[in-house]
Amino acid sequence: MRYSKLFPKTLKEAPHDEVAINAKYLMRGGFIDKLMAGSYTLLPLGWRVIENINTIIREEMNATGAQEVLMPLLHPKDIWNETGRWDEAKDVMYQFEKNEKHFALSFTHEEIVMDLIRKHVTSYKDLPLAIYHFSTKFRNELRAKSGILRGREFMMKDLYSAHATEEDLMKYYWEVADAYLRVFKRVGIDAIITEASGGVFTKEHTHEFQAPCEVGEDTIYIADSWKHAKNDEVMTDGDRTAPGLKAIKSIEVGNIFPFGTAKYAEKMGGMFTDKDGQRKPVWFASYGIGPTRVMGTLVELFHDDRGIIWPESVAPYQVHLIGIMSNESGIKEKADKVYELLTAEGIEVLYDDREDVGPGQKFADCDLIGIPVRLVVSAKTGEQVEWKKRKEEKTELLSIPQILEKL
Amino acid sequence: MRYSKLFPKTLKEAPHDEVAINAKYLMRGGFIDKLMAGSYTLLPLGWRVIENINTIIREEMNATGAQEVLMPLLHPKDIWNETGRWDEAKDVMYQFEKNEKHFALSFTHEEIVMDLIRKHVTSYKDLPLAIYHFSTKFRNELRAKSGILRGREFMMKDLYSAHATEEDLMKYYWEVADAYLRVFKRVGIDAIITEASGGVFTKEHTHEFQAPCEVGEDTIYIADSWKHAKNDEVMTDGDRTAPGLKAIKSIEVGNIFPFGTAKYAEKMGGMFTDKDGQRKPVWFASYGIGPTRVMGTLVELFHDDRGIIWPESVAPYQVHLIGIMSNESGIKEKADKVYELLTAEGIEVLYDDREDVGPGQKFADCDLIGIPVRLVVSAKTGEQVEWKKRKEEKTELLSIPQILEKL
Fold first, then answer.
1. CATH number of the domain where residue A402 is located
2. Could you tell me the pTM of the whole model?
């Protein structure tokens, strides 16, 4: 991609009302644009990061046997009444009336999935079942001050599973937990599994995936003898005196909910016929990762005072090529050729080909955008190209074959 | 994919309130599920069809130089007031109030794009600009009786372009028209470009892409001397006496709107500085294709009394493999082996491996689902495999190498 064609260019300053680092850098770098508090457009660079995150999630979800679908965002009131959540969740859920019909905007999809199950699952042979989608979630957030970490509207990958027995459910539940840990590892986050409460989802304990980060809204606790960390909400008085107790600020990047049968299947009639001919409710669970929140978390974790430092697995491009166009003839042609050579090799290159912008601005834009490798072609680089990693200060002159080998 | 694992299985009957062929077959085949009138879940088979359609659209959009983004669905009232469409479009737009803020759900995104333009476009060097996204659209449809052809909620690929001059705009406008014709051709639709009115989008004439189809809601007219067809709405008395005039029932599968500068750029301040230093409004246009509507149109165009007949380019799988599991030993193993061989060659196979379902049901399900090629392994096929195309009656026995060559 030629940077001269990319929409939009970097901004000198983020809007004054943005306080979060993730929003500041993502807005200045041209990854996102703010439509209103808590609501952002994913611009071409941001969309590429999200697509990379989503591809990793999709691969790990498919590996568990889950199948991709797309469920509606506008829901009828009736279905939310069946579980009592029309009232229970009315603070977070956008609800409205039109032509004497009452609607809600999706903040989650348990009821919608349970409706699919009661219509399409009849026997134990139809189980287990695991479906997921990437779609928009809406939450009525009064405080929307954490950039894309907490939005009125955001992207979610949510997975739902149904099983014939509790044993089957818990086996798959921990398989998904492992898949989630792999997702976070692959995008660059060492997530900590944390016991938490279920909020408007369930009375049972649930598990969160927490990314340690100083600006996180959550506090989690670890102790020497605990298998998992614990969220503040589930701590008992005894827990607070556990040996080696340590508090960690963190960002919740995923969560998984083992519902059992009571809250959804029994209330909505999500039943199947077991091997012995008995009608039984399915064992149900749901699982969520917010790709936009993951993107924001990565910026909080990986940046310096010049800008973002993307992990290679999610970077919008692999290489940021800068042509220092001087009056000396042939530099532009040489940079063009490097761009074409790398692109022909299947390498994803953002090429700053602007002729009316000086080197200082180009280097600053490059550091702000945060692509893992910077290449420079200038009057000084001769037949070679200058190589520098975003996270290192060292530069070296390399030939094209050497660069191809390194990439 | 093993059919025994696919969610969900076919249904014997579609719900009684569905009258449209597209909804009946898509629901019975397990492609979609209805949440409420005009609102459907895309189930795994349907999602695969939509992904195939979207990939074709994405390739053709990228080839025009357009860049992919994702814009919010929840919009503040203020932005719609700037063009007067909060009131103009209030019949189709879902609008509601929450915590003393007024919101609308996206039925289109011109205002949102113009907001991006006024924030990020400063000079003629930032033009042309073309961005698109695939996202959910909401329309307050009172009559939602055409299955997925007309929904309260549906998927749309919408593209927006901004240019420095009218000439640039119209050049790109017709490039997109060509790209749209290629998209429709590739998915199997011979679309007709049709002059139409602009509804709540513009007072100018616009162009629709119409797919001739007897169940279409639209009537278009062609005549010997006309370059393009005309929609009923724009016909003059003179037009109605044109030589060779012919009426065609059709389904609108796409539309393109050349706005100019007045309706959006001037009202919202979408300005740029031209080469001569003058501030001017951008020339603006938008373009839309509804992938879910395209899927429904394909079913209306390509079906028989047994089910759907998917064009190869969008079929959810390339091959539907049926194992006729008899008591004779070794049939299941042979069918499994064919499945593994084809899958290893990168062929997408739906494999009906069910052991408790008879051949009649399997053949009926196969015809209903409509994958282009049916392969059968049974006690009768010996070392070979029976090959049949969905749209032909002829069967033949082929070896695996012969099948690979045909695919």
1. 3.40.50.800
2. 0.97
Bridge-based pairing of strands B74-76 and B67-68 is unpaired
Same domain, B339 and B252: no
* Residue A165, in any domain of the structure: yes
Which residues, numbered 84 to 103 in chain A, qualify as contacts with chain B under a Cβ-Cβ cut-off of 8 Å? 94-99, 103
Task: Please check whether residues B290 and B380 belong to one and the same domain.
Answer: no
Q: How far apart are alpha carbons B354 and B316 in whole angstroms?
A: 19
CA distance, residue B226 to nearest chain A CA (Å): 38
Interface contact A225, partner B, CB < 8 A: no
Render pLDDT for B253-271 as a digit per residue (tens, 0 to 9). 999 999 999 999 999 999 9
* B6, closest residue in chain A (CA to CA): A67
Q: How far is CA B21 from CA B8, B40, B46, B291, B342, in A?
A: 20, 15, 15, 17, 33
Element (H, E) at A50: helix A44-63
Tell me: pLDDT of B141 over 90: no
Tens-place pLDDT, residues A237-253? 999 999 999 999 999 99
**Cα B296 from Cα B204, distance rounded (Å):** 29
What value does the mean pLDDT take over residues B46-51? 98
Residues A331, A274 within the same domain: no
- Range of B346's domain? 319-406
CATH number of the domain enclosing B89: 3.30.930.10
Please report whether residue A390 resides in a domain.
yes
Residues B217, B344: one domain? no
Which of these three, B272, B304, B336, is where a domain ends? Answer: B304
pLDDT of B48 strictly over 90: yes
B12 touches chain A (CB under 8 A): no
Residue A205's pLDDT is: 84
Nearest by CB: A70 against B42, B94, B99:
B42
Are A174 and A256 in the same domain? yes
Rounded Cα gap, residues B273 and B127, in angstroms: 10
Tally the domains of chain A: 2
